[in-house]
Amino acid sequence: MRLGRPLLDDFVYITLSRHIDGLWALIAQDSLGTYFFRPLVMLVWWLTVGAFGTEPSLHYAFNVAVHVANGLLAYGLLRAYRIAFAPAAAAALLFIVHPAAFSASAWLSDRFDLFATAFGLCMLIALERHLQAPRRKTFVFVVLSALATVWSKEIGFAMLAVGAIAVAWRGEAQMATIRERWTLLGALAACGLFAIALRQIVLRDAPEGMFFGQGVAATLAVGIARWMQGLPGFLVVFQGNEVGVAAWCAALAALLALPLLPAVRAALAGSVPARTCGLGLAMMTMAAAAQAPVAKVIPLIPYTLERFDFAALAASRFYYVPMAGFALFAAAILEATLRAPLPRHLRMALAVLLVAALTGLAASSRSIGRDWARYTQDRSDVFVRAAVRAVLPLGVEPGCHLFLLETPPAARHFRDVADTAVKAMLPPGHAAISCFIQGEHAPWNHLVDTRRLAGDEHQPMQVIRLGGAAFEPLRVSNLTHYYLAIPGGDAAIDNARALFFAYRAGEFHDVTAEIRSRQRAVRFYDDRPLH
């Protein structure tokens, strides 16, 4: 992990944080032009980029530290639910070392899931403490953490729903009155409605249409079905040490089979295990519903034993909060097992199997971290570094167009975000921050310092259209997001502000004269949706 490098979306967050003049614009408006409003973690990005710069090892260490903290919070929540030390600790450790949860922390861009989970777990702990002994300070903490989780990522709305279920489902030793419970439910509802209203005010409509074009009901049905279909693969995680995977499969089968024992089933019906089990399942279900719009359109491809797959690591974020819910579910079964009058040798066998499974899961996560680091280096970092070496010494004018051509197929992740990938690594104030950078394929967006631009320098590239309407540039302080397509014909080649570079033997070489004279052919591909 310490050798990992930024990839894809990581670059836009770094570019925004390094080159923006006004922090307020980063957190108080739509700063990405997409379908989410996550101001709290955008602030975290600004703070960490300010502290760590572009040193990836520190950013990765920060992500992993937040992930481990979430495991500790899961333990704290289980103890608040009166789960015994041993099952609570085992379940928290399961969450920390499980490859699906670890994978979400391995991609820097999944920082949103980490913080939404952290604040959501804090909210649930505070809720339980308040239900047991109502105090003003715990109520205030519930409200603040509720707002924090929904402003970290939309998955936070699922955490609010779980909180409402926790309030309605009375637990042991709770002193809160009916009125105090209704007050908590009202506070959670108010936080959710306020966050939704603010989100509607801030965001543009076009991106939403990409996910809800079939209507809300159909979106939820298809998205939840796809999420459920992928759940077994992400829960098992066939990746890394084969012996470890086998140990986890055996432990998982044993865990799910325990409620079939009459003694365990009877203990599971007790108030503490039943409530914890129910809230864990609710967390998984609510998370599936909250993520249904995106799960409907993004493939959820689990790991396999054959090879490391970036698509599997990227999709693991859809199972991060659910893995916390599964930890609650597993802890409830283990708690019931401890309470049940089972033979000592059966308990010892289960303990040995769990230790073997946790060791295997940790080995698989380590393998994924190692493969991920190599993947980010080979598929992105080598091309980013070469591009920065070519662009850094250039004395360009604002509004220039830089084309980085002829990269191999392995550079797909670089081409997708060429503009922000280069600018993330350029020093603040560099002239190329005010230029448009791309390959033969237009990147998803350009992020340009427009303080010295007249406004039409993006031409001859064209603003894309979504749903029949132009997807207009988005101003964020001194920076502007452009969503552009490269035109066909000779318009881009004959652009006097354009410079062309070709990738060869690990470096980008200036081939502007060859391109302009037509001695070197170039073909542009428009991957953006034009209508």
What features would you describe in this structure?
The protein is built from 22 helices and eleven strands. It has 531 residues and is α+β, with helices and mostly antiparallel strands. The strands form four sheets. It has a four-stranded mixed sheet with strand order 2-1-10-11. A hairpin with a 2-residue loop joins β5 (465-466) and β6. The chain is globular.
Which tags fit this structure?
alpha+beta; single chain; globular; four-stranded mixed beta sheet; 11 strands; 531 residues
Question: Quick gist of this model?
Answer:
The protein has 531 residues and is α+β, with helices and mostly antiparallel strands. It is built from 22 helices and eleven strands.
Question: Strands, helices and their partners?
Answer:
Blueprint lengths: L9 H10 L3 H6 L10 H14 L3 H25 L4 H13 L1 H8 L4 H22 L3 H15 L5 H13 L9 H25 L3 H7 L3 H21 L5 H16 L4 H7 L2 H20 L1 H4 L14 H6 L4 H20 L4 H48 L9 E5 L6 H5 L1 H8 L10 E3 L7 E4 L12 E2 L1 E2 L2 E2 L3 E3 L2 E4 L1 E2 L12 E7 L2 E4 L1 H5 L15
Radius of gyration: 25 Å
Strand content: 5-15%
Structural class: alpha+beta
Helix % is: 55-70%
Q: Kindly report the spatial arrangement of strands forming the biggest sheet.
A: 2-1-10-11
Biggest sheet layout: 4 strands, mixed
Rounded average pLDDT: 92
How many strand elements?
11
Number of helices: 22
Give the CA-based shape: globular
- Could you tell me how far the N terminus lies from the C terminus, measured between alpha carbons in angstroms? 42 Å
Question: Low-confidence spans: pLDDT under 50, at least 5 residues?
Answer: none
